[in-house]
Amino acid sequence: MSAVALWGAAGCSSSSSAGSPAATGTGSPIVAVGAENEYANVIAQIGGKDVTVSAVESNPNTDPHTFEASPQVAEEVSKAQLVVQNGVGYDTYMNKIESAAPNSSRKVIDVQTLLGLPDSTPNPHLWYKPTTMPAVAKQVAADLSSLRPAQATYFQANVTKFDDSLKPWLAEIAKVKSTYPSAPVAATEPVGDYMLEAAGTDNLTPFTLQAAIMNGTDPSPQNVTLQNGLFTNKKVKVFVYNQQVTDSITQSFLKLARQNDVPVLGVYETMPTPGYTYQSWMLAETTGLYNALRNGTSTTTL
Questions:
Q1: Which residue, 11, 40, 176, 199, could crosslink 29 as a Cys pair with Cβ 3.0–4.6 Å?
Q2: What count of other Cβ atoms lies within 10 Å of the Cβ of residue 234?
């Protein structure tokens, strides 16, 4: 995967229209890059007509852990005035590109740093934590306001709108937690773990197994046997399956879950496109979790 996907903020394609930054005398759109398309989506929502946003990683059918940046990506990042990247070792290629094209005026939001997390943070999938994106949106607005002070009120209004739009997702998480407290689940990989924790589930898959699959190494035979027993002994109510990090072992787990009528919830590392925003994506996966617990139904793909 090497393409840079252009995001659909109003400023991306209508710079000569009546409502565009150029037409309103506020200058050309601010060029921004999100290392993952969920961050690009939030930048676009906060910056609106004042930003042109690209996403580096945006293909939901590939494994982000094996991503390699192309010269096209390097060129796009080198031009950016604002960059949002995850950190925690998830997108270290961004640091290399930024070092190769230094720019003292470029704003870089490293989400790990923003949240004050150590390098030893075991689960890098920070966007699944409900408190992450409000913090990112707030910092995006601050940095955009620094680049374009005249639009500060507009950016802050978009932060308020963004925070309000998260409420259905947060309500769905609360519903799962109150209706099915400590619901036992299994997972292939920790991508959705922060959401599962917020929803109060009890993830019975050892983290060492999840980490092994995330890092492309073989889980221990003991962990594989334990995981298989979660399905054959019907100890879990839902199997959370990362659709972007798969191999013969995860596929064997998926087959065993289906054979034992354990509903499957497909989750993703990058936001499925088209048709989703960050908020609607998170809500769809959490609703899938609720439906699995309530009806035993699977939501294998989005």
A1: 11
A2: 12
- pLDDT digits over 7-31, tens only? 544 333 323 333 445 434 457 999 9
Sheet containing 184-187: order of strands: 202-203, 184-187, 238-242, 264-267
Q: Omega into 274 within 30° of 0, i.e. cis?
A: yes
Cβ neighbours for 220, distance < 8 A, ≥ 6 positions apart: 208, 209, 212
Average pLDDT for 31-59: 96
Question: Can you tell me which residue has the tokens 């690009």?
Answer: 40
Please give the model's pTM, rounded to 2 decimal places. Answer: 0.91
CA 253 to chain centre: 24
Q: Are 112 and 197 in contact (CB under 8 A)?
A: no
As given in the structure block, the two tokens for residue 88 are 């925690």
Can you state the percent helix, strand and coil of the chain, rounding each to 5? 50, 15, 35
C-alpha–C-alpha distance, residues 88 and 69, integer Å: 17
